[in-house]
Amino acid sequence: MLVVGGGGREHALLWKLAQSPRVGKLYAAPGNGGTGALAENVPLAVDDFDGLVAFAAAEGIHLTVVGPDDPLAAGIVDRFEAADLRVFGPTAAAAQLESSKVYSKRLMDAAGVPTARYETFDSKPPALEHLEGRALPVVVKASGLALGKGVFVCHTLEQARDAVEAIMGERVFGAAGSEVVIEDYLVGPEISLHALCDGSTYTMLPSAQDHKPAGDGDEGPNTGGMGTIVPVPWLDGDDLRRLGETVVAPALAQQAATGSPFAGLLYPGLILTSASPRVLEFNARWGDPETQSYVRLLDSDLLDLLDACVDGRLAGTPVRWQPGYAACVIVASGGYPGECRKGLPISGLDAAEACEDVVVFHSATAIDAGRHVTAGGRVLGVSATGKTLESALDKAYGAVERIAFDGMRYRTDIGRRPWPEPATVALPAS
Fold first, then answer.
1. Could you tell me the strand order of the sheet in which 227-230 lies?
2. pLDDT digit string (tens) for 348-391?
3. Are 160 and 140 in contact (CB under 8 A)?
């Protein structure tokens, strides 16, 4: 098997796939300083489609699993399928649910999926003019892929103008800023849904909650995610089922109706307002760092599930989960999500992994002179499981405290937000 990507999500997928009795050899392209313990790292970039297709064909790869969003948006699945190679992930047309927020919003309208009131713009002047009459606060989003950083919550008109200028004028996110979405600011707890899909049917994974802002108390700039918990304690199985019927089912039906059925992992991010659940965004791949928590509780063979999605037989494939909770705390470099120093030696990894029920997933590490060093912003994902959420968190944070490198930082409040009162959120009726 081949897993495309080099982050914590890919390390977690490899970790779970390695437990399958059907898996013989694992490859990671390009992998990282941690994946080499499970798989052979192959020096192929995620956008080297020619190289990846040739490698999969030459090695007789049973299934390629694509982790990151960029290659999905650029059509890696289409290239593999054209070469008659089995691959897990949506086509480029289906991945527009994530790669274009404008496309996603319009699909939600057509499918009747609840979302925030919005307007879209493909040039700067009308976007700025629209802001003049907009109630504040407001959310300004780059339409394309921006590593989770293209969303600005603006409480003043000046902030909103600056966001439009950064996205469409300065093009800080490159081509992702060719269009913007300006939408209402919504209030309520956020949750992540994940659903395995085979183009026509879906299976819900437990609910998850990510923590996007860089600092404690949800302060600071948005990141790719600073930590997750699975499941969300105040949502039950009926809530999850109804959310799937409200969000996932109509989106899948609409994708199929457009001629681009979605097969892969569909990951909507929701906010539960006091009026109704609203979709903030759709993602077309496994969440990062949600995956690092999911694999710790998944009791089924992951390869069986991925094969079922690719082969269109998900409806007859059971999914089993271990009881309890999983948590993942991201250990990041100083300066993240901005510029970060690389090549800093990391100590304490063995001590952390020796902790009870702890697995450390590598997100941005490399091997230098036989030791692990930092190689980016989100360096490690320290995961733990427990019978209660608090015990999982205590184990994860206990392991984090054994790790050290210059400038290391992490949030201390993952999973410790106050739980919402029932009257403050609305869920779909049964």
1. 209-210, 227-230, 325-332, 378-386, 358-362
2. 999 999 999 999 999 999 999 999 999 999 999 999 999 999 99
3. yes
Answer yes or no: are the C-beta atoms of 46 and 6 closer than 8 Å.
yes
- Report yes or no: 13 and 1 within 8 Å, Cβ to Cβ: no
Nearest to 71 by CA among 6, 150, 4: 4
Which two three-digit tokens encode residue 159? Answer: 């902030």
List the one residue out of 304, 319, 314 whose CA is nearest residue 20: 304
DSSP letter at 245 equals: I
Residue 331, amino acid: V
Q: Per the CATH hierarchy, to which homologous superfamily does domain 190-400 belong? A: ATP-grasp fold, B domain (3.30.470.20)
* In the chain, where the domains are located: 2-92, 117-184, 190-400
Q: Which residues pair with 215 in a beta bridge?
A: 219
What is the tens place of the pLDDT at every residue in 257-268? 999 999 999 999
Coil vs helix vs strand at 368 = strand
Which letter does DSSP use for residue 244 in this model?
Answer: I
Sign of the Cα torsion 380, 386, 391, 395 reads negative
Q: Is 148 left (phi over 0), alpha (psi -120 to 50) or beta?
A: left
Tell me whether the omega of the peptide bond preceding residue 231 falls within 30 degrees of 0, making it cis.
yes
**pTM (two decimals):** 0.94
| CB-CB neighbours of 233 under 10 Å | 14
Strands (E) in 223-324, as ranges, are 227-230, 263-272, 277-283
Strand partners, 365: 374
Other beta carbons less than 10 A from residue 385's beta carbon? 22
CATH for 2-92? 3.40.50.20
DSSP-assigned states of every residue in 26-69: -EEEE--TTGGGTSEE----TT-HHHHHHHHHHHT-S-EEE-SH
